[in-house]
Amino acid sequence: MATIKDIAQIAGVSIATVSRVLNYDTTLSVSDETKKRIFEVAEELSYKKKPARKQESGKIALLQWYTEKEELEDLYYMSIRLGVENQCRHHGIQVDKYFQDNYGDLKENEIQGLIAIGKFSKKQVSELLKITKNIVFVDTSPDEDRFDSIVIDFERATKKVLDHFIKKGHEKIGYIGGREVFKDKTSIIEDPRELTFKRYLTEKGVSHEDCMYVGTFSADDGHALMKKAIQELGNQLPTAFFAANDSLAVGALRALLEEGISVPDRVNIIGVNDISISKYVFPSLSTVKVYTEIMGETAVDTLLERMAGRKTAKKIFIATELIIRNSSF
Fold first, then answer.
1. Is domain 4-152+291-318 in CATH 3.40.50.620, yes or no?
2. Fold of 154-290
3. What is the Cα–Cα distance from 3 to 20, expressed in whole angstroms?
4. In a designed cystine with 297, which of 33, 75, 87, 121 is the match (CB 3.0 to 4.6 A)?
């Protein structure tokens, strides 16, 4: 496994800077460009390198629904993007990258296919169809009868975490989550982790209703939401928390440690995604591993099939795995 020292050497910064960036230390003053370099190096070192093939014909576009700055707050999407880019290099394919704040430029370029990462409204999907009919959506499936999609079963992933907590004897389980809105502000996006958490624990008869805190999917909100939970619940603070992504979990961990609450002795916490920083935070984060590299690779391979003439749509689920580290028993 790559170490913080390895990341520091490649990124050209100090070991201390890497450690503080990976732990979302808000007292550290570094540029977004430096953060981006550190996060990308950490992700790249977790991938298995593949030799590049000779250049294939055609050009594809990669559209990230986040801006570059937003991507730094939710590394899940950065990790998928890097998986796409690595697979394109493997196939020798030219890929043009676009983010939310410049994807209007797509109309000015001739492309053969498009990989769209993130959540897109019906209106946005219609706009993308004007650019190309060959589209693969990653992390969402706007119309499984028409479009190829690469997705995760977050309902199943959530149940894995909750079953683990229940098996370990936790009788009160909390939730730290986030909600998203389509970038064109047409509607709020329902999160399957939040919905499953409510429904499944109700079915199991486990206490949770007064222990759910929701903001955005950022480390800052994870920190703020856990602080709020500590203040409001006091001695009734749950013995376990499910965080809807690792960024939230990292922020929540920092809040618990600041308040002198022992992890995992007093509070267990498990996140989702297993982004590269998860193994470097203290204590190392238990999480549901989402194989983002495979999501990116599969998106490229699926798009190549489409470009080669396949007509029938595919919806592909990528499996997840519960990884127990030091933030939970």
1. no
2. Rossmann fold (3.40.50)
3. 14
4. 87
